[in-house]
Backbone:
């Protein structure tokens, strides 16, 4: 069975029932996980003074001097899942918001032998692409709002009064450009106008897609830019999404992540018929 590991943001309440309920309500992964027989795991990061965080990049978010090794912790968690369940090691995915997005990028860089794909929401990678480099291709989807008041879309540093500045970080575009270079992708193509309606806070379609058209199997790279969206997007609710759109969501997602082997490549071709298939949230990992 595939595994989707979901990582919370900085400052999330450590009480299990509270934060799991919050993450579940925000991402709404459970129905898709049940439908597609995907193992779904909400990971709990280390905590200081009642707030959880991940020691992801040098910019985010170990502001407390903790020496805990979150990479080893998450690898160990995946191994524990594999011990208890029939895990498909070719399809281990990770998604996270904010600090969890930073950590997803770190895991993809340092554990590319284990992680098949990530969907990072408003959390970016390391500023220096030579600092760490993956050994294998990783499918990467990065989602970011242009009005992000915590992790600016253009990168650089946390705005004054938000979080401590320990280091700078790249912007959303620079993040996917780094991943395109890591994976050996070229041929970037961007929507000429918004093609998706992901946020109820912005009227009409507000999201443009930048995708690299020439990537190796297992190394797809995309950037979804949500125009006018803040740090935590107000994702379109299920009631505002038609059944046809939901089907296109699943089809687009499967096309993105089923590139790991010949079978996945075949599915990619059959399920991407029709241009500009829509995807409404991070649900794309669950459709793999």
Residues:
């Amino acid at each position: 069975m595939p595994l989707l590991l979901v990582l919370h943001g900085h400052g999330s309440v450590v009480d299990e029932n509270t934060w799991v309920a919050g993450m579940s309500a925000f991402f709404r992964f459970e129905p898709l996980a049940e439908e597609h027989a995907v193992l779904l795991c909400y990971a709990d990061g280390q905590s200081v003074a009642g707030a959880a965080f991940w020691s992801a990049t040098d910019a985010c978010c170990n502001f407390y001097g903790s020496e805990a090794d979150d990479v080893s912790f998450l690898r160990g968690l995946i191994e524990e899942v594999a011990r208890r369940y029939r895990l498909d090691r070719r399809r281990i995915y990770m998604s996270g918001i904010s600090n969890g997005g930073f950590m997803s990028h770190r895991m993809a860089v340092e554990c590319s032998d284990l992680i098949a794909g990530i969907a990072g929401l408003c959390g970016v990678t390391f500023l220096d692409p030579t600092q760490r480099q993956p050994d294998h291709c990783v499918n990467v989807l990065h989602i970011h709002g242009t009005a992000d008041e915590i992790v600016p879309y253009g990168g650089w540093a946390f705005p004054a009064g938000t979080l401590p500045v320990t280091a700078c970080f790249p912007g959303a575009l620079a993040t996917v450009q780094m991943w395109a270079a890591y994976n050996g992708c070229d041929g970037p193509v961007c929507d000429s106008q918004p093609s998706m309606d992901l946020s109820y806070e912005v009227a009409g379609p507000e999201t443009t897609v930048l995708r690299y058209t020439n990537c190796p199997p297992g190394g797809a790279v995309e950037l979804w830019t949500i125009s006018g969206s803040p740090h935590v997007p107000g994702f379109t609710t299920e009631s505002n999404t038609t059944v046809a759109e939901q089907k296109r969501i699943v089809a687009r997602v499967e096309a993105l992540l089923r590139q790991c082997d010949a079978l996945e490549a075949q599915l990619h071709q059959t399920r991407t018929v029709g241009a500009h298939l829509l995807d409404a949230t991070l649900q794309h990992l669950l459709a793999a």
About this structure: The longest strand covers residues 207-214. Residues 60 and 99 are 6 Å apart (CA to CA). The helical segments are 16-27, 30-35, 70-84, 99-110, 172-183, 243-257, 262-270. The first helix runs from residue 16 to 27.
